[in-house]
Design brief:
14% strand; 7-stranded parallel sheet; alpha/beta; 7 strands; 248 residues
């Protein structure tokens, strides 16, 4: 399988930090031009843009957008077309993650969690699809192992990711044969920075992972790169979780 992305253009949402930045770096290293979407991480996005352009001039551009805004899908796709002349790969990575107990769910929680994890990927994919089809392109959605096995205390997040898994499979049918659509379902990769999981819970998660450790953003980036280049793979969701979902 040819893993070169030379001459291709990739749009990565939530690309400024953490998993999104690792994905952008991996695709860029494979030869792709990259459009780096960000919402609030201006400094990190600018730093990554400069880093990638120092490696290969004029190969990366950052675009700020609030994904819940109706104008965001067209703005992001237009940025790729205007800067690089086309779009070959869309990675729907941007996500919101926080717990909301059943009985305390409000409309604002629904808008944020379902909006970022399901609605935005749908409308960005819809906007991108005609352009991806021109070059037999691909979409890779970052799902979650909890799309299939809900995480206690996170019902709305789990619902949103389950919808994204269904969207992945639906789009694989709707956009075939011109566009392949797959997903990556991470397990414990990078702990939330706001302390959502206490040390004891982190230890329990690691203990229930067959490989006995958390993964890295680069593990997800490697899987995205594989799916971006696999010519006979569509409608699949690849768990990258150290085997944890075996026990859930």
């Amino acid at each position: 399988m040819d893993q070169s992305l030379q001459g291709k253009t990739a749009l990565v949402t939530g690309a400024a930090r953490r998993v999104g930045a690792a994905i952008a770096r991996r695709l860029h290293a494979a030869g792709a031009n990259v459009v780096l979407h960000y919402r609030g991480a201006e400094a990190e996005a600018a730093k990554l843009e400069a880093e990638l352009n120092a490696v290969r001039a004029k190969s990366a551009t950052k675009v700020k957008a609030e994904l819940l805004a109706a104008s965001a899908p067209r703005a992001l796709v237009s940025a790729a077309l205007e800067r690089f002349g086309g779009l070959d790969l869309l990675v729907n990575n941007a996500s919101t993650f926080f717990p909301v107990a059943l009985g305390a769910i409000e409309a604002s929680h629904w808008e944020e969690l379902v909006g970022s994890n399901l609605r935005a990927p749908l409308f960005i994919s819809q906007e991108a699809a005609p352009h991806l089809a021109k070059g037999q392109g691909a979409i890779v959605n970052i799902v979650d192992i909890h799309a299939e096995r809900p995480l206690k205390g996170y019902p709305l997040y789990s619902i949103a990711k389950a919808g994204l898994a269904a969207l992945t499979r639906s789009l694989a049918i709707e956009l075939a044969p011109a566009v392949r659509v797959n997903g990556v379902a991470p397990g414990a990769i990078a702990w939330p920075e706001d302390g959502q999981f206490a040390d004891g819970e982190r230890g329990r998660i690691v203990a229930s992972t067959p490989l006995g450790r958390v993964g890295s953003p680069e593990d997800i980036a490697q899987a995205v790169h594989f799916l971006a280049c696999a010519p006979f793979v569509t409608g699949q969701i690849l768990a990258v979780d150290g085997g944890r979902s075996i026990y859930l």
